Amino acid sequence: MSLKQILNVNHIDVFHGTFQALWDVSLQVREGEMLALIGANTSGKSTLLDSISGLLHPARGRIEFEEREITRLDPYQIVEIGITQIPEGRRIFPEVSVLDNLLIGSYNRKAREKKEENLEKVYEFFPILRERRKQIAKTLSGGEQQMLVIARGLMADPKLMLIDEMSLGLAPIVINELFRALKEIRERGITILFVEQNVRRTLQEADRAYILETGRVVLSGSPSDLQEEDQVKKAYFGV
Amino acid sequence: MGSGDILTPLIMGILLGGLYALIALGLSLVFGVMRLINLAHGDLVILGSYGAFGLMSHLNMDPVLSLVICIPGMFALGFIIQKYLMGRAFAISVEAPLIIAFGIALIIQNTNQILWTPLSRGLNTSYSLTSFSLGKLQFPISYLLDFVAGIVVMILLREFLGRTYLGKAITAASQDRRAALLMGINTNRIYGYAFAIAMVSAAVAGVFLGMTFPFTPTSGTSLLTIAFGTVIIGGLGSMLGTFIGGVTLGVVQTIGGYFFGPATQMLIVYVIILVILAVRPQGLFGR
To answer: Which residue has the higher pLDDT, B170 or A41?
Structure first.
């Protein structure tokens, strides 16, 4: 892991209408790392991901990706430069085949050229999807749907993946499988920023973590440092 | 009554159904993709009819041939309407696009009124008034053209949506807009294409309608009703469902007219629509 920053979120304030969801949030993602974002519901985790993805634009502050400002780019432009978000809630395209879901992932011009190559890669990560490629996506199990959503994101040929609550509502054995895949993905050089509510699990998997509370970054650091913090112990481990 | 008697309205109904499907396909596509009930759809069909009428009366152009000009014209108009009116209205509220659509309908009706007078017009050609025979039965050739056009447009739309990258993106955006955005699809542009393609199907519908029935600047309103009926029966979003919905509606109308007289045939159509809405609100083929 290098110390080179790939993403730099710089003092952003983000609003939903008149409600301020993020307050002066700063966050740095290093190239090749697996960075976790921890926090309760409504702490602003998804808002932060949506701001990076261009679905929301900050009122103040700036966001840089590979030293280029991306604060005002539209979502499709963000995907083109190499950031893909895997939304929570397993948002597959339910009525089309698994393969079509994957192909839509490579919609942006750059990814379309590498579509065959990426498809092979994705089938290596998730062999079950190759078997099921002709099936209508909604017939997959919950775990398979989550694999499909991650695989679809990989088809966009990203440098940085933002993954929102991938383990929500899934069995532990499936979650293990997903984290195994994530590690393989990271080994292929893709940086990962993931959001989880399961703090214990997150601190096992991540290289570093940020903790958000009511729209503010309250703590950040390595898992071992964070586990020692009284605040974390009290809030998340009940000791 | 012999079996030959009922065969005539049955076949007429099936052929007419192709026209109804043609009219409804664009409405179905726009609703499926952007959840917009395009109240102007019937008037946009009639705009296609008048477009062909203008080219026929001034340049003596065959109505089917005039599609070469009407199709790109309506495509551009559709893209502009979506980009500069609907897209902006969507940003305001869910109701705003409905009101915009209603406004477009009024503008088209009144423009046609001014340009072409309220007189009834038709796209009459040497061949549109001839007939073809099926056994001993005779049918207007225009009905056959309607049916063929309906099938061709339905198949083209289906293949386009299912096979091309743009079509897949339109389908994806219709199933989950947020996920489509996150997959790098510029949904605003996609909506523009979807609306433009719906307008192309409206132009085709307008030309074949004009070759079959006379039309006036206010005919669009009743076409909207037919399109709604077709889509309700067939189920929204499915092109094949819309086609079968159109045929069902056509057959119900002509068979109803056969048994209860022409005055009540539309009444029977509406009763069937109400029954389907009550029993199977997603339509016969809807999801």
So the answer is: B170
> Please, which pLDDT band fits residue A28 given cuts at 50, 70 and 90?
very high
Q: Is A75 in contact with B181 (Cβ distance < 8 A)?
A: yes
For the whole model, what pTM was predicted? Answer: 0.88
pLDDT band at residue A51 under the 50/70/90 scheme: very high
Residues B219-229: what's their mean pLDDT? 92
Instruction: Sort out which chain A residues have CB atoms less than 8 A from B172's CB and list them.
Output: 93, 96, 104
For residue A96, the chain B residues in CB contact (below 8 A) are 168, 171-172, 175
Which positions 28-57 of A are in contact with B (Cβ < 8 Å)? 53, 55
Q: Which residues 174-203 of B are in CB contact (within 8 Å) with A?
A: 175-176, 178-186
Which residues of chain B are within 8 Å of residue A75 when distances are taken between CB atoms?
Answer: 181-182, 184
Cα separation, B101 vs A68, in Å, equals 41
Here the tokens at position B197 are 């393609």
Name the minimum distance, in Å, from the CA of B162 to any CA of chain A.
9
- B169 and A103 within 8 Å at the Cβ level: the answer is no
DSSP summary character for residue B122: -
Give the C-alpha distances (Å, rounded to integers) separating A109 from A162, B159, B165, B189: 20, 22, 11, 15
Chain A residue at shortest CA distance from B170: A104
What φ, ψ does residue B262 adopt, rounded to 5°?
-60, -25
Q: What is each CA distance from B106 to B113, B125, B157, B202, B215, in whole angstroms?
A: 10, 29, 28, 17, 16
> At which residue do the structure tokens 């984290």 appear?
A179
Query: What ipTM describes this predicted complex?
Result: 0.89
Q: Nearest by CB to B184, from A55, A93, A108: name it.
A: A108
Q: Is A5-236 assigned to CATH 3.40.640.10?
A: no
DSSP-assigned letters across all residues of A59-127: SEEEEEETTEE-TT--HHHHHHHTEEEE-TT----TTSBHHHHHHHHT-SHHHHHTHHHHHHHHHHH-H
pLDDT of residue B134: 84
Nearest CA in chain A to B174: A93
- Quick check: A227 pLDDT over 70? yes
Of all helices (H) and strands (E), which one includes residue B278? helix B265-279
Structural domain boundaries in chain A: 5-236
**Lowest-confidence region among B41-45, B89-93, B187-191, B213-217:** B89-93
Compare all CA atoms of chain B with the CA of A90 and give the residue at the minimum distance. Answer: B179
If you average pLDDT over residues B135-152, what whole number do you get? 92
